[in-house]
Write a structure and sequence with these properties.
Number of domains: 2
Structural class: mainly alpha
Helix content: 25-40%
Number of strands: 2
Largest sheet: 2 strands, parallel
Distance between the termini: 8 Å
Shape: globular
Strand content: 5-15%
Radius of gyration: 17 Å
Length: 164
């Protein structure tokens, strides 16, 4: 689920900071990507500008409240917008600028049934860097072990968390 829309009523108290809810597809076609220079993103913007991040974000992308299941769901323009945003966030991290306002108060349920240290750690680190919290669910503590379907487990977790 991806939400880069700044007009969400839940965030009306903090309109200068966009909301993000992210999950990634399992595989990506990297042939669509272009490298983006941090200098391009920062052109005309200064470090003292508190709206640097929100200025670089797309406003109309058609992904609001959508479940992302495949890279095929994205247009080339949407992918470029997402990767430009990722590059802007990378610059923020490198400059020790805070990003923890973006997902403050949001909860991610992280469910991995196969060991994937790098993937689970990167999801968790990203969520926490953006101000969110993470609940880790593994196979040994899941009701799937007792016969519940994966679909039911995900549906239940989706009721508790903002993103699964």
């Amino acid at each position: 689920k991806t939400d880069l829309d700044q007009s969400d009523a839940d965030d009306s108290h903090n309109e200068s900071h966009p909301r993000l809810e992210l999950s990634t597809p399992h595989s990506m076609d990297h042939s669509l990507l272009r490298p983006v220079s941090p200098m391009l993103l920062a052109k005309g913007k200064s470090d003292s500008n508190p709206n640097l991040l929100s200025q670089s974000m797309p406003h109309s992308h058609g992904l609001h409240s959508q479940h992302i299941l495949s890279v095929d769901m994205f247009t080339k323009e949407q992918l470029n917008d997402l990767f430009n945003l990722a590059q802007t966030m990378r610059v923020y991290v490198l400059k020790d600028r805070p990003l923890d306002h973006i997902l403050r108060g949001k909860l991610m349920a992280s469910i991995f049934y196969e060991v994937s240290t790098r993937t689970s750690s990167s999801f968790s680190a990203a969520m926490q860097r953006l101000g969110g919290r993470v609940v880790q669910v593994d196979e040994s503590s899941s009701s799937v072990k007792k016969g519940e379907t994966l679909e039911d487990t995900v549906a239940v977790m989706a009721g508790y968390a903002d993103v699964v």
